[in-house]
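Async update (no meeting this week)

Hi team, since we skipped the sync, here's where things stand on the single-chain job. The sequence we agreed to prioritize is pasted below, unchanged from the tracker. I ran it this morning and attached the output directly underneath so nobody has to dig for it. Comments welcome in thread, and please keep replies under the output.
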Amino acid sequence: MSNAYKNAGVDVNRGYEAVNRIKKYAKATNRPGVMSQIGSFAGLFDLKPLNMKEPVLVSGTDGVGTKLLVAQQFNRHNTVGQDLVAMCVNDIIASGATPLFFLDYIAVEKIDPDHIEELMKGIYQGCKLADCALIGGETAEMPDMYHDGHYDLAGFAVGAVEKNQIITGQTIIPGDAVIGLPSSGLHSNGYSLVRKILFKDQHQELDGKIIDQILEPTKIYVKPILNLLSKIKVKGIAHITGGGFDENIPRILPEDVGVEIDTTSFIRPEIYHTLQKMSLMSDREMFQVFNMGIGMIVVIDSNDVNETLQLLQEAGEDAKVIGSITNQEGLTFLW
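Output:
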């Protein structure tokens, strides 16, 4: 290949090697419907094997944010790919959709096949947990665009749901129960603040336990939620991401209703106590930024609480009733 392009900072041979390594991970995520292989100009997926009467495609795109800077700082790259998948598929299951396939975008200053493979391990793990196929992507080598060793990730997921089974939240009424599914920690939101608290405002070396906590990958809720949807009439689902409770729960509520959250009903992961102690943030402000230990909520009829909790617990989720729907708009917190 052209030495001129290599001298400009783009080594296509490294790119070819990275793609070859990606292929084995992509192939291992195949599911019925996949019609193409990595390396084609486009990813193809056949909806017919789904046997759906009126399929509606549901899409979501997201990134990992500045959590990537923490991964780069501590040279740990094999889990942020799961974060990438999680941020996309957890959004589309909020509409009741089954994730079908995923595409990734990896942008780097210089392609290192070993580094790309580490990132791909996390993406593979995320796709397996979500039961969706990795059918394509792009790895872009862009010298001068990024600092040495820096990279960015973006993901795109597509799922499908029967038209008459789309979850909109419009049937939510006062008296409905709010069930919380535990998070694995910070997930992938609030990291600009996390980095400020831990690395800019503090002048002490952090122990490995805290580093493990802030790089814990985002939990993927696809399998327990889809199992629940097959047995219970779920009225609303909210993925608790950036903006915490305040920004995400109201997105699924119809007009003239609100939600009351009992903050004593669930356990906050240790990392939140650490961050609050270091930052002196109030409880109220913490809930405006972070998930505080709840990564997803579902709203159901109060008569379905016991069966819902049992189904989720059988799926490995230590779910709790954390609140209820009220006739007062907005969020109310019980401390």
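Quick observations from my side:
The first strand starts at residue 55 and ends at 63.
The radius of gyration is 21 Å.
Reply here if anything looks off.
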